Amino acid sequence: xxxxxxxxxxxxxxxxxxxxxxxxxxxxxxxxxxxxxxxxxxxxxxxxxxxxxxxxxxxxxxxxxxxxxxxxxxxxxxxxxxxxxxxxxxxxxxxxxxxxxxxxxxxxxxxxxxxxxxxxxxxxxxxxxxxxxxxxxxxxxxxxxxxxxxxxxxxxxxxxxxxxxxxxxxxxxxxxxxxxxxxxxxxxxxxxxxxxxxxxxxxxxxxxxxxxxxxxxxxxx
Length: 221
Fold this sequence. Notes:
5 strands, 9 helices, disordered N terminus, alpha/beta
């Protein structure tokens, strides 16, 4: 992974909150996203759940095409899907004051496109101008634990079928966390090796809940 300091993006903040959840395959992103959304919904916080690649024709094409598209071609497709995702779904939900929980975002691109041989500064350029999350959650765990979970769950893409991928992803997410912090992103790195999904979810949901309520009190509708 390239160690060049990535550019910082600082768009105007919108009324809602964007929470992104990334991590190696098998670490529990989808389960955690669902539990965080439920914890917020149970406390009357408006939530919008989404995922990348998106559930659009382009996103489905990317998801089904990782054996066909590689390197720069895949990096461009993923970045294009993200830019459209922001314009068509995420930003409108944020404007409506919702907490958007996004399963995968830029950190996954830094890692997976890195595995595909694309330098991190190229990934940053392809994603120039994207909305910076209020919290970028990076889940990680001991690579042996992740590999066991991935084996039980089954691979979803060619990345997850590669030998030694759990260790490679785990290491690259540590590098991605450092790059994101340099870029000024608010990173919450959590180790899921021994913590249960419910515990991880509450570690994420509680500060979101507090921040959302503080903002609501400061800017009453």
